[in-house]
Amino acid sequence: MDLKYDVYTITNAEGSGEERKYVRLKQYEAMTAHELEATIQQRCSLTKGDVAAVLSELHDIVVSEFSMGRRVYIPELGYFSLAVNLEMPADKPNKKITGKEVRLRGINFRPEAGLLREIDRNIHFVRSQYSSRSTIFTEEKLWAKLQEYFQKNRYLTIKLMRILFGLSRHMAQKWINHFIAKGLLVKDGTPRSPIYFLNDKQ
């Protein structure tokens, strides 16, 4: 399966004066509890009720094991462990450390090597056509680009807005709504496939 990613650049990373590139995967919504139960029911003899009961018991066991200071191991998935940090009072940085200064930060997960290998065989990384991070524009600069675009084109869509100007879907829609509110653009088409025109009556 293709997994899409974006590439980002950090300027002056770690004060070295150099640019540092990193990638971020495009994440989709997680499967809901009901979807998980239904999927497992389709793949084995367990009913959705059975699956829900197992997940409930697993939750209780995880809480109990963590509360006793143990790691949790789930076969074929990996190990889960608690992560903590130290929060010292700003006005007393040299204060004696007690349990009150230790805070639960989260839960670490160390996957089984076999799990990683299995996933790696099933995925392929592809650079996303649309960046999830938007190019920053001032209103004047973006409107000037849109006016130039409309000199050669009759209408605009969200998809074209994203491709032409490097905007996320959210920002493309936000800018279009802004220009509609100012009376510079007008909306047409259908609710599922809207198109936008330059307002000739402005």
UniProtKB/TrEMBL annotation:
It comes from the Bacteria. InterPro entries: HU-HIG, IHF-like_DNA-bd_dom_sf. The keyword DNA damage does not apply. Pfam families: HU-HIG. The keyword DNA-binding applies. Signal peptide: none annotated. Residues 1-125 form the HU domain. SUPFAM superfamilies: IHF-like DNA-binding proteins. GO terms for molecular function: DNA binding. Keywords: DNA-binding. This is HU domain-containing protein. It comes from Segatella copri. The lineage of its organism: Bacteria, Pseudomonadati, Bacteroidota, Bacteroidia, Bacteroidales.
